[in-house]
Amino acid sequence: MQWFGRKESGNVEDRRGFTGGRIAAGGGIIGVIVLVINLLMGGDAGTMLNQMQDQNKTEQTPGITDPEEDKMAKFISVALADNEDVWKDIFRQMGKEYEEPKLVLFRQATESGCGDASSASGPFYCPDDRKIYIDLSFMDELRNRFGAKGGEFALAYVLAHEVGHHVQNLLGVSSKVKAMKERVNKVEANKLSVALELQADFYAGVWANHEEQINHTLEAGDIEDAMNAANAIGDDAIQKKAEGRVVPDAFTHGTSQQRVAWFTKGYKTGNMNEGNTFDQLQ
Ligand SMILES: [Zn+2]
Asked: Most distant CA pair in the chain: distance in Å?
Protein backbone atom coordinates (compact mmCIF):
# COMPACT_ATOMS: atom_id res chain seq x y z
CA MET A 1 0.00 0.00 0.00
CA GLN A 2 1.33 3.41 -0.92
CA TRP A 3 1.24 5.37 2.29
CA PHE A 4 4.47 7.31 2.81
CA GLY A 5 3.77 11.01 3.27
CA ARG A 6 0.00 10.56 2.94
CA LYS A 7 -2.68 12.03 5.25
CA GLU A 8 -2.73 10.58 8.79
CA SER A 9 -5.86 10.23 10.92
CA GLY A 10 -6.51 12.67 13.75
CA ASN A 11 -8.15 9.87 15.74
CA VAL A 12 -5.03 8.08 16.98
CA GLU A 13 -4.47 8.11 20.72
CA ASP A 14 -0.82 7.14 21.10
CA ARG A 15 -0.24 5.78 24.60
CA ARG A 16 2.95 3.93 23.70
CA GLY A 17 5.23 6.52 25.28
CA PHE A 18 3.12 6.70 28.43
CA THR A 19 6.03 6.19 30.82
CA GLY A 20 8.30 8.51 28.84
CA GLY A 21 5.48 11.03 28.54
CA ARG A 22 5.00 11.08 32.28
CA ILE A 23 8.67 11.72 32.88
CA ALA A 24 8.56 14.63 30.45
CA ALA A 25 5.39 15.97 32.08
CA GLY A 26 6.98 15.64 35.50
CA GLY A 27 9.91 17.74 34.30
CA GLY A 28 7.35 20.25 33.05
CA ILE A 29 5.65 20.48 36.43
CA ILE A 30 8.97 20.95 38.20
CA GLY A 31 9.75 23.61 35.60
CA VAL A 32 6.51 25.43 36.42
CA ILE A 33 7.28 25.34 40.14
CA VAL A 34 10.76 26.73 39.45
CA LEU A 35 9.19 29.44 37.26
CA VAL A 36 6.70 30.42 39.99
CA ILE A 37 9.45 30.57 42.63
CA ASN A 38 11.63 32.67 40.32
CA LEU A 39 8.73 35.01 39.53
CA LEU A 40 8.03 35.43 43.25
CA MET A 41 11.66 36.37 43.65
CA GLY A 42 11.37 39.01 40.91
CA GLY A 43 12.64 37.17 37.81
CA ASP A 44 11.70 37.90 34.18
CA ALA A 45 8.95 35.57 32.94
CA GLY A 46 9.79 35.78 29.21
CA THR A 47 13.43 34.77 29.59
CA MET A 48 12.54 31.98 31.98
CA LEU A 49 9.84 30.58 29.69
CA ASN A 50 12.38 30.40 26.86
CA GLN A 51 14.80 28.59 29.14
CA MET A 52 12.04 26.15 30.13
CA GLN A 53 11.15 25.44 26.52
CA ASP A 54 14.79 24.62 25.77
CA GLN A 55 14.83 22.35 28.79
CA ASN A 56 11.67 20.53 27.67
CA LYS A 57 13.18 19.95 24.25
CA THR A 58 16.05 18.01 25.77
CA GLU A 59 13.76 16.08 28.11
CA GLN A 60 11.66 14.86 25.22
CA THR A 61 14.59 13.64 23.15
CA PRO A 62 13.46 10.12 22.28
CA GLY A 63 15.53 7.38 23.81
CA ILE A 64 13.03 4.55 24.17
CA THR A 65 11.31 4.61 20.79
CA ASP A 66 11.69 1.81 18.30
CA PRO A 67 12.03 3.22 14.73
CA GLU A 68 10.44 0.13 13.18
CA GLU A 69 7.41 0.43 15.47
CA ASP A 70 7.16 4.19 14.84
CA LYS A 71 7.03 3.42 11.13
CA MET A 72 4.15 1.01 11.76
CA ALA A 73 2.38 3.63 13.91
CA LYS A 74 2.57 6.11 11.00
CA PHE A 75 1.40 3.44 8.58
CA ILE A 76 -1.60 2.47 10.69
CA SER A 77 -2.53 6.13 11.13
CA VAL A 78 -2.64 6.56 7.33
CA ALA A 79 -4.63 3.31 7.03
CA LEU A 80 -7.12 4.62 9.63
CA ALA A 81 -7.57 7.85 7.64
CA ASP A 82 -8.24 5.67 4.58
CA ASN A 83 -10.88 3.72 6.53
CA GLU A 84 -12.51 7.04 7.48
CA ASP A 85 -12.67 8.12 3.80
CA VAL A 86 -14.17 4.84 2.66
CA TRP A 87 -16.74 4.35 5.44
CA LYS A 88 -17.88 7.98 5.33
CA ASP A 89 -18.61 7.41 1.66
CA ILE A 90 -20.40 4.06 2.12
CA PHE A 91 -22.51 5.40 5.02
CA ARG A 92 -23.45 8.48 2.95
CA GLN A 93 -24.67 6.14 0.21
CA MET A 94 -26.80 4.33 2.82
CA GLY A 95 -28.23 7.67 3.96
CA LYS A 96 -26.43 7.40 7.31
CA GLU A 97 -23.67 9.31 9.02
CA TYR A 98 -20.39 7.62 9.88
CA GLU A 99 -18.97 8.36 13.31
CA GLU A 100 -15.21 7.84 13.36
CA PRO A 101 -13.77 5.47 15.97
CA LYS A 102 -10.59 6.26 17.91
CA LEU A 103 -7.51 4.08 17.68
CA VAL A 104 -5.49 3.56 20.87
CA LEU A 105 -1.90 2.41 20.40
CA PHE A 106 -0.40 1.01 23.58
CA ARG A 107 2.44 -1.09 24.93
CA GLN A 108 1.87 -4.10 27.18
CA ALA A 109 -1.20 -2.87 29.04
CA THR A 110 -3.74 -0.08 29.14
CA GLU A 111 -7.27 0.65 30.33
CA SER A 112 -10.25 0.41 28.01
CA GLY A 113 -14.00 1.04 28.33
CA CYS A 114 -14.34 -2.76 28.29
CA GLY A 115 -11.85 -3.44 31.09
CA ASP A 116 -8.08 -3.77 31.20
CA ALA A 117 -6.37 -4.41 27.89
CA SER A 118 -3.13 -6.33 27.53
CA SER A 119 -0.95 -7.36 24.61
CA ALA A 120 -2.07 -10.96 25.22
CA SER A 121 -5.68 -10.17 24.26
CA GLY A 122 -4.57 -9.10 20.77
CA PRO A 123 -6.13 -6.21 18.82
CA PHE A 124 -9.77 -5.59 19.72
CA TYR A 125 -12.67 -3.14 19.45
CA CYS A 126 -14.55 -1.95 22.52
CA PRO A 127 -18.17 -1.04 21.62
CA ASP A 128 -18.66 0.85 24.92
CA ASP A 129 -16.04 3.53 24.29
CA ARG A 130 -15.98 3.01 20.50
CA LYS A 131 -12.21 2.62 20.46
CA ILE A 132 -9.90 0.15 18.76
CA TYR A 133 -6.97 -1.09 20.87
CA ILE A 134 -3.75 -2.31 19.27
CA ASP A 135 -0.35 -3.13 20.72
CA LEU A 136 1.88 -3.04 17.63
CA SER A 137 4.07 -5.83 19.04
CA PHE A 138 1.13 -8.02 17.89
CA MET A 139 2.70 -7.86 14.43
CA ASP A 140 5.91 -9.50 15.71
CA GLU A 141 3.78 -12.17 17.30
CA LEU A 142 1.89 -12.72 14.06
CA ARG A 143 5.20 -13.27 12.28
CA ASN A 144 6.86 -15.39 14.95
CA ARG A 145 4.02 -17.55 16.20
CA PHE A 146 1.84 -18.00 13.20
CA GLY A 147 4.37 -17.62 10.42
CA ALA A 148 2.35 -14.96 8.57
CA LYS A 149 4.33 -12.92 6.14
CA GLY A 150 4.51 -9.63 8.00
CA GLY A 151 3.72 -7.37 5.07
CA GLU A 152 2.39 -3.98 6.02
CA PHE A 153 -0.95 -4.75 4.50
CA ALA A 154 -1.43 -7.54 7.05
CA LEU A 155 -1.62 -4.75 9.63
CA ALA A 156 -4.07 -2.80 7.44
CA TYR A 157 -6.27 -5.92 7.34
CA VAL A 158 -6.15 -6.32 11.13
CA LEU A 159 -7.14 -2.65 11.52
CA ALA A 160 -9.89 -2.90 8.89
CA HIS A 161 -11.31 -5.98 10.69
CA GLU A 162 -11.56 -3.96 13.94
CA VAL A 163 -13.13 -1.03 12.06
CA GLY A 164 -15.54 -3.65 10.71
CA HIS A 165 -16.66 -4.33 14.29
CA HIS A 166 -17.21 -0.59 14.73
CA VAL A 167 -19.37 -0.56 11.59
CA GLN A 168 -21.41 -3.46 13.05
CA ASN A 169 -21.82 -1.42 16.22
CA LEU A 170 -23.02 1.66 14.31
CA LEU A 171 -25.43 -0.41 12.21
CA GLY A 172 -26.90 -2.08 15.31
CA VAL A 173 -25.76 -5.60 14.31
CA SER A 174 -23.64 -6.08 17.45
CA SER A 175 -26.48 -5.34 19.86
CA LYS A 176 -28.93 -7.54 17.91
CA VAL A 177 -26.47 -10.45 18.00
CA LYS A 178 -25.82 -9.89 21.69
CA ALA A 179 -29.56 -10.15 22.43
CA MET A 180 -29.89 -13.25 20.24
CA LYS A 181 -26.98 -14.95 22.00
CA GLU A 182 -28.77 -14.65 25.32
CA ARG A 183 -31.70 -16.70 24.01
CA VAL A 184 -29.79 -19.69 22.57
CA ASN A 185 -27.50 -22.46 23.84
CA LYS A 186 -23.72 -22.30 23.90
CA VAL A 187 -23.13 -23.98 20.54
CA GLU A 188 -25.63 -21.68 18.77
CA ALA A 189 -24.21 -18.64 20.58
CA ASN A 190 -20.76 -19.59 19.33
CA LYS A 191 -22.07 -19.79 15.75
CA LEU A 192 -23.39 -16.24 16.11
CA SER A 193 -19.99 -15.06 17.35
CA VAL A 194 -18.32 -16.69 14.36
CA ALA A 195 -20.79 -15.00 11.99
CA LEU A 196 -20.05 -11.63 13.59
CA GLU A 197 -16.30 -12.17 13.17
CA LEU A 198 -16.62 -13.31 9.56
CA GLN A 199 -18.74 -10.27 8.77
CA ALA A 200 -15.94 -8.06 10.16
CA ASP A 201 -13.59 -9.86 7.73
CA PHE A 202 -16.09 -9.24 4.94
CA TYR A 203 -16.17 -5.52 5.83
CA ALA A 204 -12.36 -5.45 5.81
CA GLY A 205 -12.60 -6.77 2.23
CA VAL A 206 -15.23 -4.15 1.34
CA TRP A 207 -12.84 -1.49 2.62
CA ALA A 208 -9.97 -2.84 0.48
CA ASN A 209 -12.26 -2.78 -2.58
CA HIS A 210 -13.27 0.86 -2.03
CA GLU A 211 -9.75 1.88 -1.02
CA GLU A 212 -8.55 0.72 -4.41
CA GLN A 213 -11.28 2.73 -6.14
CA ILE A 214 -11.11 5.92 -4.06
CA ASN A 215 -7.44 6.30 -3.15
CA HIS A 216 -5.75 3.96 -5.67
CA THR A 217 -3.13 2.97 -3.10
CA LEU A 218 -3.12 -0.82 -3.25
CA GLU A 219 -0.02 -2.49 -4.64
CA ALA A 220 0.77 -5.98 -5.90
CA GLY A 221 0.99 -8.42 -3.01
CA ASP A 222 -1.24 -6.40 -0.64
CA ILE A 223 -4.30 -8.64 -0.89
CA GLU A 224 -2.05 -11.68 -0.56
CA ASP A 225 -0.60 -10.20 2.66
CA ALA A 226 -4.11 -9.68 4.04
CA MET A 227 -5.16 -13.22 3.17
CA ASN A 228 -2.00 -14.62 4.71
CA ALA A 229 -2.83 -12.83 7.94
CA ALA A 230 -6.47 -14.00 7.83
CA ASN A 231 -5.22 -17.51 7.20
CA ALA A 232 -2.73 -17.34 10.07
CA ILE A 233 -5.21 -16.08 12.66
CA GLY A 234 -8.13 -18.37 11.84
CA ASP A 235 -9.17 -20.20 14.99
CA ASP A 236 -8.21 -23.60 13.60
CA ALA A 237 -4.70 -22.38 12.80
CA ILE A 238 -4.32 -20.84 16.27
CA GLN A 239 -5.64 -23.95 18.00
CA LYS A 240 -3.44 -26.27 15.97
CA LYS A 241 -0.44 -24.26 17.12
CA ALA A 242 -1.65 -24.21 20.70
CA GLU A 243 -2.99 -27.74 21.16
CA GLY A 244 -1.82 -29.66 18.13
CA ARG A 245 -5.38 -30.47 17.05
CA VAL A 246 -8.52 -28.65 15.99
CA VAL A 247 -11.63 -28.36 18.19
CA PRO A 248 -14.41 -26.92 15.98
CA ASP A 249 -16.92 -26.29 18.81
CA ALA A 250 -14.62 -23.84 20.49
CA PHE A 251 -14.21 -21.66 17.40
CA THR A 252 -15.15 -18.05 17.86
CA HIS A 253 -13.59 -16.38 14.81
CA GLY A 254 -14.08 -18.94 12.06
CA THR A 255 -11.61 -21.23 10.33
CA SER A 256 -8.76 -19.91 8.21
CA GLN A 257 -10.65 -20.95 5.09
CA GLN A 258 -13.83 -19.11 6.16
CA ARG A 259 -11.92 -15.94 7.07
CA VAL A 260 -10.08 -15.85 3.74
CA ALA A 261 -13.34 -16.60 1.86
CA TRP A 262 -15.31 -13.74 3.48
CA PHE A 263 -12.49 -11.22 3.15
CA THR A 264 -12.19 -12.16 -0.52
CA LYS A 265 -15.94 -11.86 -1.08
CA GLY A 266 -15.91 -8.36 0.42
CA TYR A 267 -12.91 -7.40 -1.68
CA LYS A 268 -14.37 -8.77 -4.93
CA THR A 269 -17.92 -7.34 -4.55
CA GLY A 270 -17.36 -4.22 -2.45
CA ASN A 271 -21.08 -4.53 -1.77
CA MET A 272 -22.44 -4.26 1.80
CA ASN A 273 -25.53 -6.31 0.83
CA GLU A 274 -23.40 -9.38 0.11
CA GLY A 275 -22.21 -9.68 3.70
CA ASN A 276 -24.88 -11.77 5.39
CA THR A 277 -22.63 -14.21 7.21
CA PHE A 278 -25.49 -15.20 9.54
CA ASP A 279 -27.72 -17.09 7.10
CA GLN A 280 -25.03 -19.46 5.97
CA LEU A 281 -23.92 -20.61 9.39
CA GLN A 282 -27.25 -21.74 10.75
ZN1 LIG B 1 -12.92 -9.66 15.52
From this structure: 78
| Model confidence at 62: pLDDT above 50 | no
Residues whose CB is under 5 A from ligand 1 (ion)? 197, 200
Burial of 85 (C-beta count, 10 Å sphere; 0-12/13-18/19+)? middle
Q: Are 259 and 235 in contact (CB under 8 A)?
A: no
138 and 122 Cβ atoms separated by less than 8 Å: yes
pLDDT(54) > 70: no
Does the structure show a pLDDT above 90 at 233? no
Q: How large is the average pLDDT for residues 231-259?
A: 75
- Ligand 1 mean position, distance from CA 181 (Å): 16
Q: Helices 186-214 & 173-183, crossing angle to 10 degrees?
A: 170
Q: b/e string for 114-147 if b means 16 or more Cβ within 10 A?
A: eeebebeebbebbbeeebbbbbbbbbeebeeebe
Q: Is the pLDDT of residue 21 over 50?
A: no
Q: What is the pTM of this model?
A: 0.80
Ligand 1 center–CA 95 separation, angstroms: 26
**CA angle 20–3–61, rounded 5-degree value:** 20
